[in-house]
Amino acid sequence: MSNVQIKSNNTLYYLIPSVVMGALSIGSISIYTHIIPIEDYGALAICIAYSLFVTSIANFGLGIGYERDFFEGKNEIKKKTGLFYSIILFVFINLCFFGVLTYFFGEIITSFLIGEAKYSSLLLVSFLSTSITTIKNFFLTYLKNSEEGKSFMWFNIDESVIGLMLSLIMVLYFKIGILGIILGQFIAGLIVLLLVGRKFILKLPFYLALPDLKKSLRTSLFLIPKILFGTVASEADKIILGKINNSGGVGYYNRYDA
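RESULT FIELD:
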């Protein structure tokens, strides 16, 4: 197979998960909207906005920086592997720090952002789910840049299908409401992260390259303002609407805007 055909196939593999995720999302909304109050949808949107902002800080711009550094060390497997694991460990430690803060101050945060402390559990699970996605994306970036499109596609599709099934079970069978949606996504993300992590450990033995991490951090730090402003620009409207109206207004906006 020629390089052109391989790249064409890989491009298709990268697009298919988006189509599948979009179709599953549209199909599930019609089910959830008949069961879950619109105020809870708004609370979830605000919790996710908070999680995206905090994980962007914990990321230190390394999500974009790593993709750049990947190609610089493309022909040096040990160097590339060391940087990969070093970045994941660094981001994981940062996420743990913010996770502890979210756990202990969850009620204060939700009281301020949503107006009700009862959503602290939703906030924590939203943060954990977003954190799992943050870590998992480094693995998927490696697969994409290594032109392993088929693995990239199946890991994404598996997560979408497993997440939908688990969320439906949580909402319809266990009847835990809005928490069931994000809890199903969190468990699905964790399963896929463990699977892709196992694949990498077997393929790329664990190795740290802290000097390369420091070098990557020096350049990635300049990306933080851009990333944070981008996150604020895309998510701040939900928080502002929640403050001037209520979570129900955010729920209507978020549901139909999606």
